Amino acid sequence: xxxxxxxxxxxxxxxAFDLLTLMSPSAEPPDWHVFSHTRHLRLVFNDISVPTPGLxxxxxxxxxxxxxxxxxxxxxxxxxxxxxxxxxxxxxxxxIIACDRNPGFENDIADELRRRSAVxxxxxxxxxxxxxxxxxxxxxxxxxxxxxxxxxxxxxxxYRLPLAWPLASSNGEEESHAADALARGQVRMDAGSxxxx
Length: 197
Known about the structure:
This protein is of the alpha/beta class. It is about 40% helix and about 15% strand. The longest helix has 15 residues, at about 170-185.
């Protein structure tokens, strides 16, 4: 996951990937042809958690598109998810895709999301819509409410979230070190076959 500003560097570190773009209507899109993506889904809505006059809210059709995009992905190809700041919409989408693939691990995934990035604040409306679509009876929404709002930031640093659970302890430690180094800017984004990046 990354911000729009971080997208060129992260994309350049991947040979081929699936790209999920979640942006506001007013955002100026980059030239998508410069990225070596295999598939691209672009959804346009504002980053809001309550109905707001004059703004476009995420809806069930958009969240179903996110779920379908995740379900149609190929395990050997990385998935790169970005929004404007890499904090709210992209983290919600990553959480939703991970929960879809791993029923029963909603709380573990939320905890791992917070551990991977201190600044992420997943869009609550997106999570609630997906929770309803997946029939999770509020478990996803409650897990995101429990980890709370992330630290204030203008732009989130790139990070990775595993999409296969449960995490193996040795692999989890390795992932942790890689994510920590990435957050400190010591390594570039490098998504593996079971990760969204």
